[in-house]
Write a structure and sequence with these properties.
By secondary structure, the chain is mostly helical. Among the domains are: 3-167, no CATH class; 422-508; 519-626. Helices cover 60% and strands 5% of the residues. It has 28 helices and 7 strands. A 5-stranded antiparallel sheet has the order 3-2-1-4-5. Strands 6-7 form a two-stranded parallel sheet. A hairpin with a 3-residue loop joins strand 1 (69-74) and strand 2. Helix 4 runs antiparallel to helix 5, helix 10 packs parallel to helix 12 and helix 17 (435-446) runs parallel beside helix 19 (466-476). The chain is elongated.
């Protein structure tokens, strides 16, 4: 290899090293800014703070081992390495370069030999100073006092001198004294006073002083309108500002008042309040989203997502459901952002989304609910609702356990919308073990059109709780649909007598003659004879309410049948109830005839029925149902 080729190879190698150094310095400074932000948001023992600190320390030690030092030039809003910007942030309230720059720092150098303890002390120093109010922080002074062995910095002498003079002047002002100009500090000043002019109220200026004063005014206030001193005030509906007669507004002058209407005032107040209430966790999420948007290396991208996943799980365990909701939204936005530009990152985001949408997470939520922890139940509802229909069993379970009006109202509204979309969803909420929710679902089902929802009442046939079945039967009785009668017939075969009685009493005749004939036929069976008296009576009342001629003839035949057998007497008394429910003139005539019957029980029943019809009273249950 010739000397010229060797020189070219060496130059090429140096260029490659410089490029790598620049790239690594860029990543390192970004890691520094992120670490300081995380340390300001979280306590030192928090897992996120620990991760960022360790990541920066490992990056810095690797950089110093290879390149010996990291020397950064500090601009007002940027850090520079090798004369080129490696980090920029122009928002002064959170800009790390601006914080360094305002304190007079112009160059910061970190040298090989920094161990983990020294790096940690450097990070803690920066974190502490950045957390202070602007007028109290002094990074240069803090670095000087800390005297870190492998950290060097440069601040211009005139800046330090000015700071000293400012502090001295401030000290003297507090004591009511004034600082003496430097040019007069070591001179004897002779002051002559003309006693004749001292009280004239005038000051004589030399020509050069007049010129300096005029030029000073021109430089300080160039081309300002006459109304430049007008102040702005925000007020709601205060009308127009006062106008001085004869005074014309200069073109381009500022308005005296900015008048906002009620909606604008509310919006402004909400924005201000939102900014005041920004949670540290929300700041961290926003910070991580910025990091993920800028991160180019997949390994680091994966590590950052792992931090977020841990943070997600910790938020769930702490009951801070508003944080996972925000994080889920941010991840969706990030996926849309990088969908085309960086497709290699999509699988990592999909994996994160799959992990955070697992139903196993809801087991952690269940533990919190079972422990009766203090929770934001509306946030809990919004979070669980994100899981879609898969989470409906969990929400149904939580309804019984969470006695919070807002949570229950939100869940009722969700169930209402689900039932409107798909009535079959009712089955997910009907459960003997969830009586309060099931009762609420019954009321919601009553609100829907009969032809759409009645079939879902068949789910109540298999329940064991009497009170739920009675509520379902009552709801069915509010529908004018033959399907409701069909399900009521199912309840008439229930093992519980009260349920059977309620179902029988709720039957309505809607024109289905075949079903009516079948019920008449059932009265002759042995199974019907074994039924309690009140159930038999309820069926006969239904036959009477039907006003059907065949049913009336059956009631008449049974009523007039003469027999001294107890079973026949009981059926005749039931027929009295049917005729009373019929209320037709023919039925009244039959009841009047009954007052002359020899059978005392039938005679008494007919007489009481006539009295009730005359007084407009409802029928009463039989005292003796032998």
């Amino acid at each position: 290899m010739t000397e010229e080729e060797r020189i070219k190879d060496q130059a090429r190698s140096e260029q490659e090293d410089e490029a790598q150094a620049f790239q690594q310095a860029r990543e390192l400074v970004l890691a520094l800014a992120n670490t300081i932000s995380a340390l300001k948001i979280f306590p030192a023992h928090h897992s996120s703070a620990i991760h960022f600190r360790r990541d920066f320390i490992s990056r810095l030690k690797a950089f110093l081992d290879r390149f010996q030092k990291l020397e950064l030039e500090v601009g007002e809003f940027a850090f520079y390495y090798q004369g080129k910007p490696v980090y920029q942030d122009e928002i002064s309230s959170k800009s790390l370069p601006f914080f360094f720059y305002k304190d007079g720092l112009r160059v910061l150098a970190l040298y090989q030999g920094m161990d983990e303890q020294e790096i940690g002390e450097f990070l803690e120093l920066v974190r502490t100073e950045t957390a202070k109010p602007a007028e109290e922080s002094d990074l240069v002074n803090a670095l000087w006092l800390k005297d870190l062995a492998n950290v060097q910095y440069y601040a211009p002498e005139e800046f330090i001198e000015n700071r000293i003079l400012e502090e001295r002047a401030e000290s003297l002002n507090k004591k009511g004294l004034q600082i003496i100009p430097q040019e007069l500090a070591n001179r004897v000043v002779e002051i002559k006073v003309d006693r004749q002019k001292i009280f004239s109220g005038q000051v004589e200026l030399r020509p050069e002083e007049k010129q300096a004063l005029e030029s000073f005014q021109d430089q300080e206030f160039p081309d300002l309108p006459e109304t430049w001193q007008q102040t702005l005030s925000f007020a709601e509906g205060e009308g127009k500002p006062e106008e001085i007669p004869g005074q014309e507004k200069a073109p381009g002058s500022l308005p005296e008042k900015v008048t906002l209407n009620r909606a604008e005032m509310d919006t402004l107040n909400q924005l201000i309040e939102r900014n005041r209430q920004l949670l540290p966790e929300e700041e961290f999420v926003n910070l991580m989203m910025e990091i993920l948007a800028l991160e180019k290396y997949l390994e680091q991208y994966r590590a950052n997502l792992e931090i977020l996943r841990t943070f997600y799980q910790e938020s769930i365990k702490a009951g801070r459901f508003e944080i996972p909701i925000l994080l889920d939204k941010k991840i969706k936005d990030l996926k849309a952002l990088i969908n085309q530009d960086q497709p290699e990152k999509l699988p990592l985001l999909e994996s994160f989304a799959a992990a955070t949408s697992s139903l196993q997470i809801l087991d952690e939520v269940r533990k919190l609910v079972d422990q009766k922890a203090e929770l934001n139940y509306l946030a809990l509802f919004d979070y669980v609702k994100q899981f879609g229909d898969r989470a409906l069993p969990f929400l149904a379970e939580f309804y019984e356990k969470i006695d919070n009006p807002e949570f229950r109202a939100s869940l009722r509204q969700l169930i209402r919308s689900k039932l409107q979309e798909n009535p079959a969803t009712a089955a997910a909420f009907i459960d003997d073990q969830k009586p309060e929710l099931t009762a609420e679902v019954i009321e919601l089902m009553r609100e829907l059109p009969g032809q759409k929802i009645i079939s879902q009442f068949s789910n109540f046939l298999t329940l064991s709780r009497r009170e739920l079945k009675l509520l379902a039967i009552e709801a069915l009785s509010s529908f004018q649909e033959e399907m409701a009668n069909k399900i009521l017939l199912g309840f008439m075969n229930d093992s519980d007598g009260q349920v059977r009685l309620k179902a029988t009493s709720s039957l309505k005749y809607l024109g289905d003659l075949s079903r009516l004939k079948q019920l008449v036929k059932d009265t002759t069976t042995r199974a019907f004879r074994r039924k309690p008296f009140e159930e038999k009576k309820a069926l006969f009342e239904f036959l009477g309410r039907s006003r059907n001629p065949e049913a009336f003839n059956f009631l008449k035949k049974t009523y007039l049948k003469k027999s001294i057998l107890p079973a026949a007497t009981e059926l005749r008394v039931c027929a009295v109830a049917g005729l009373e429910a019929n209320r037709s003139p023919e039925a009244l005539e039959l009841l009047r005839r009954g007052e002359k019957f020899l059978n005392p029980r039938v005679r008494q029943a007919a007489s009481q029925a006539l009295v009730r019809l005359t007084l407009g009273q409802p029928s009463q249950p039989e005292e003796n149902s032998r």
